[in-house]
């Protein structure tokens, strides 16, 4: 039951991160006309930093003596997730012609399992 609560919380944090990611991506891409893939990366980075702190405190109730190491591990897992996300975004948008923001949402959903599993087992698991 505890793991289900953590999955639920991780999902809630992920949704808030997704809103932040989409908002930043939209502003950078649509208003500042930055390349859509660069905007996607920038939105991701801000959301990942936000998600680390909320997951650290709320989802996993972490009490590590080395928060910096936890952040580095979280960010490494997130970067691998970003690579997966970017590959899927490219595949869905360029290859299958799915609308950019729908393709971005699909990529995020696909990468959720990677993000939770790696953080649960290798970063915050006590």
UniProtKB/TrEMBL annotation:
Its main location: membrane. Keywords: Membrane, Transmembrane, Transmembrane helix. It is a multi-pass membrane protein. The keyword Lipid metabolism does not apply. One of its GO terms (cellular component) is plasma membrane. GO terms for biological process: polysaccharide biosynthetic process. The chain crosses the membrane at residues 6-28, 37-59, 71-92, 101-122. It is found in: Membrane. It holds the Pfam family GtrA_DPMS_TM. Residues 9-124 form the GtrA/DPMS transmembrane domain. Belongs to the GtrA family. This is GtrA family protein.
